[in-house]
Amino acid sequence: MPLNLAGLVLCVTASLFAIVRAEDPYRFFDWNVTYGDIYPLGVRQQGILINGQFPGPDIHSVTNDNLIINVHNSLDEPFLLSWNGIQNRRNSFEDGVYGTTCPIPPGKNFTYILQVKDQIGSFYYFPSLAFHKAAGGFGGIRILSRPRIPVPFPDPAGDYTILIGDWYKANHTDLKAHLDGGKKLPFPDGILINGRGPNGYSLTVEQGKTYRLRISNVGLENSLNFRIQNHKLKLVEVEGTHTLQTTYSSLDVHVGQSYSVLFTADQPGQDYYIVVSSRFTAPEVLTTTGVLHYSNSAGPVSGPPPGGPTIQIDWSLNQARSIRTNLTASGPRPNPQGSYHYGLINLTKTYILSSSAGQINGKQRYGFNSVSFVPADTPLKIADYYQIGGVFRVGSISDRPTGGGLYLDTAVLGADYRAFVEFVFQNDEDILQSVHLSGYSFFVVGMDGGQWTQDSRNQYNLRDAVSRCTVQVYPKSWTAIYVALDNVGMWNLRSEFWARQYLGEQLYLRVYTASTSLRDEYPIPKNALLCGRASGRRTRPL
């Protein structure tokens, strides 16, 4: 080919790439992570602030946007942010947990490069290392539908992030030391709404208008019930799935979960309680309140805050089963959400994961299938990329409960790319648990009391189960999910009960393909931090 023609082809090709890339906008964020004094429950604590804010700033984006988030670590210890529900497709290097990403050293920065590919909905970010989550550093993520993609409800008059969670007055360092000493955490001291304690949060609305609330439970362990005095909540979206628009008087939000509700300010003009209370914690129930303030309010809140469910498991289970996918609504693409018929796909494998608690060397530990996770000296994904031996072993945890006692290991489950698999979470303990899988959205096909058996599949919802990334497992119960393993990488499967996660109730799912095509997985980011046995390696030429 003549040189000038080759140059022309190269220019045209480059411009085509530029056109393709231009369709997906870039949004830039520059965040400084610092310690700062906070007083959410009236006591001074060391909080983790982002650009001076507690909670951190919201991330607003649109389907397929590229998010360039430069994080400066001004703490005195390593730090990472993770993105609860963001799938980081083909790119688990950016997931921001220690199994995938080297920590940002004190005084250094790292730029996350995320793409919210084929996603919509309500999620949140949080600090994943040590026990930083108990100090803040979390914030909301919203992914709006692209223009011309229909949304199954009119635009609300306002769209608000509501971050709820249990809270301790103790500093995160003291809580971590407590766990490192082999002890369980005490009962929390309170509940926060958007970083504020009792009566600290207020929301002003105009009579007759409808509003959207994106509610995420960013707490450490407790399921929380959310309600607004004299107002109904219409559920419209759960972790990226448009749902059947069922109306509830209150909503259980388990730890790690996100829900979008609509409510209409259709009551007489005055102030009303926003109430958040703990579930399954009787005899002690934590409650906090905020204020829904009508702009034409004739007076303050009156009477006691409305009560909610406390220990009723059946109430919560029935509500969970009523949360279903809206099959005719569009998701991130124009086609209806129901066009993917997950119930007609043959299963290729079943994993049964049973949570366990016990003592190892006289200290409290937790795990799945008798394995209590211990981090390796190198992030697993990075060790895998460089083929560094001796860091982890695929199959170091069984795909069935073993019935043996707890032991320590770096638990990695193997899975094949493009397999369609079933996970059964068996909870034989008397507490509710919440489980999250990074990199994926899965179908919650069933949940019930007792032991799961193959006959349990007869009651599965194979038509309109909700697709989400964090699911509850009720006490002495099981939950089953279906997931299409279409995202190559090393993905964290963990308890959202943060002390249990910290003390070993987590594993990594290695979704593997022998292919080296960019269509299946991206190479390590050019700016990736390298640590442990990968220190000194090259990423890629800039």
Task: Annotate the secondary structure layout.
Elements: H1 3-22, E1 26-38, E2 45-50, E3 59-62, E4 66-73, E5 81-84, E6 109-115, E7 121-127, E8 139-144, E9 158-167, H2 172-180, E10 190-193, E11 202-205, E12 210-217, E13 224-228, E14 233-238, E15 241-242, E16 247-248, E17 251-253, E18 258-264, E19 271-278, E20 287-294, H3 313-322, E21 349-360, E22 363-368, E23 371-373, H4 380-385, E24 407-409, E25 412-416, E26 420-427, E27 433-437, E28 442-449, E29 467-468, E30 470-473, E31 477-484, E32 489-495, H5 498-502, E33 506-512
Parallel strand pairs: 1-4, 3-8, 9-12, 11-20, 21-26, 23-24, 25-33
Antiparallel strand pairs: 1-2, 4-6, 5-7, 7-8, 9-10, 12-18, 13-17, 13-19, 14-15, 14-16, 14-18, 19-20, 21-22, 26-31, 27-30, 27-32, 28-29, 28-31, 32-33
Domain Plastocyanin-like: 33-146, 159-297, 378-514
Organism: Ficus carica (Common fig)
InterPro entries: Cu-oxidase-like_N, Cu-oxidase_2nd, Cu-oxidase_C, Cu-oxidase_fam, Cupredoxin, CuRO_1_AAO-like
Keywords:
mainly beta; oxidoreductase activity; copper ion binding; Cu-oxidase-like_N; six-stranded mixed beta sheet; glycoprotein; 542 residues; single chain; 5 helices; CuRO_1_AAO-like; globular
